[in-house]
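User: My collaborator sent over this chain with a note saying "see what the structure looks like." That's all I know about it. Can you take a look?
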Amino acid sequence: MCGICGYLSKTPVDSAVLDRMTDLLTHRGPDDRGIRITEHGDWQIGLGHRRLSILDLSPAGHQPMSDDSGRYTIVFNGEIYNYRELYDRISGCALHSTSDTEVLLQMYIRYGTGCLEYLNGMFAFAIYDRDENTLFLARDRMGEKPLYYHAADGRFLFASELKSILAYPDFEARIDRESLLQYFGSNYIHPPYTIFQNTHKLCAGEYLIWSEEGIQTGRYFDPVDSYYSGMEDRGQSYTECRKKLKELLYDSVEKRLISD
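Assistant: Without extra context I'll predict from the sequence alone. Here is the result:
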């Protein structure tokens, strides 16, 4: 588990605010921390990361992490279970670590939003493109890793937990009444809503692209569609299904045991 956060604004990014947003996530990542502030014209973006080291325990796995050109920078929470299998898809890239973070970054550079189709893992991440001044956020298929965002008054904030967004000085914590009614009705606030106005939770299997023109969201995975797409396998016998289930369980556990 790690923690990520950041914000885009036309006013200068306050490093003290970014530090505060980042350090509120220390419990998610006690092993390392990092922040980075980048400019693009009138805009500035600050990215923060708290790390729980799992893959590549060396400083080479430090985040925020950029590619060699400095154009793309990532902050990443989670684990890409099939990152070694993805090496062939990014052949020719000079990797400087053995981390899944760098593989994920290179996959995005090569495939853009299409990289999500290749990922097997639990994740929430943000990638900033300095040349285009765009920010790409994505969340894993089942929503294991959380990711919140807030957009209002010419700024955009995101974080693994709402407490980091609350640390932004100009954030107005106004209760969203519809969300409050939803909570009283089901003891839960359904994504993309949160308890605060203009503040949302990225849905499972969803991505978001922020640009100066606005915000675009899209869904790359839907569990219901996935269920029905597998209906053709229902002609298998009970013995075949039992064998397949065992194989899937063993494979999923084995993938989750990869660590340094």
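A starting point for your reply to your collaborator: The mean pLDDT is 93.
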